[in-house]
Amino acid sequence: MADKGFSARELSKRAVWNEGKTSKILNGRQRPSREDVISWCKACETPPEVRDQLIAQLQSVDSLWLDWRRAERHGMYKLNREVRELYERTGLFRIYSPSMIPGPIQTAEYVRALLTSLRERRGVAVDDIELTVSERMARQHIVYEGAHRFSIVLEESALHMQIGGPHALAGALRHLLAIQTLPSMALGVVPMAANRTVYWPVEAFYMFDREQVSVELVSGYLTVTAPSEVQMYEAGFAQLADAAVYGAEARALIEQALAVVE
Fold it and tell me: What Å distances lie between residue 224 and 4, 36, 66, 213, CA to CA?
């Protein structure tokens, strides 16, 4: 706009906007729509290739963040079904969880308890929990079939989080003991007594090869695809994995947690 030598008032006139809207967009108080970008570019006589790039960037931002209310307005199943293809094509899964056992290695009882809690907390109107449980369990075939590999790091606290009560947790922990020996699985546990000076617990995240990172937050679902940001998660995962114990030491921590709830 400045390069064209006209003011916000002139832009408003050219774009057929009121000046209040122009001010909000310029100052970051209102997010422009696709139509707004087109009008802006037309008013500034922007080349078509620049306009198309701006529209693509806007659409990319829209795809990076999805709030739960919008994502689950038709229930939980649709969102879970939509990621099936991503799971199928991923070769290396790197998963970090500070507070619960993650999806690919959950039991049906654990999944059901988790989804029930989330449905109540987030006020999901549609009750499609059983359909969603079936979908999530069906895609777990990738743990046992194909060339998929899993590197999963849990905080020890995740072994004690009673989602669904002691019976559900006990079943989930026994399942961990069973899958720990799978050739596709590298399961690590960061002991509570570990020195966390270098890298302390962070938000749970899933890495799908080097393609993207998925992060579930309180208000929504974040998808990270920028290579520089994916590399940051990759480096963070490596540090968390270094702090974890594996094999017999991890098994001992799981068995200790199981003894508490059995």
Answer: 35, 25, 12, 5
Q: What letter represents residue 157's amino acid? A: S
Cα gap 78→71, rounded to integer Å: 9
The two tokens of residue 114 are 């988790």
- What CATH code is assigned to 67-261? 3.30.870
Exposed / middle / buried, residue 71 (Cβ in 10 Å: 0-12, 13-18, 19+): middle
What is the total residue count of the chain? 262
Q: Phi and psi at residue 255, in whole multiples of 5°?
A: -65, -35
Determine the pLDDT at residue 47.
Answer: 87
- Express each pLDDT in 98-108 by its tens digit: 999 999 999 99
> Looking at the predicted structure, is the pLDDT value of residue 61 above 80?
no
**How, if at all, do strands 92-97 and 65-67 pair?**
unpaired
Separation between Cα atoms, residue 254 and residue 25, nearest integer Å: 52
Least confident of 18-27, 37-46, 50-59: 50-59
User: What's the Cα-to-Cα distance from 238 to each of 52, 95, 148, 232, 255, rounded to whole Å?
Assistant: 38, 11, 19, 10, 25
Cα angle 214-25-229, degrees, rounded to a multiple of 5: 25
Task: Report pLDDT digits (tens) over 2-15.
Answer: 455 567 788 788 88
Separation of alpha carbons 186 and 158, rounded Å: 16
Is pTM beyond 0.85? Reply is no
Report how far apart, in Å, the C-alpha atoms of 141 and of each of 84, 136, 145, 227 are. 11, 10, 6, 29
25: pLDDT strictly greater than 90: no
C-alpha–C-alpha distance, residues 129 and 133, integer Å = 6
pLDDT of 155 above 70: yes
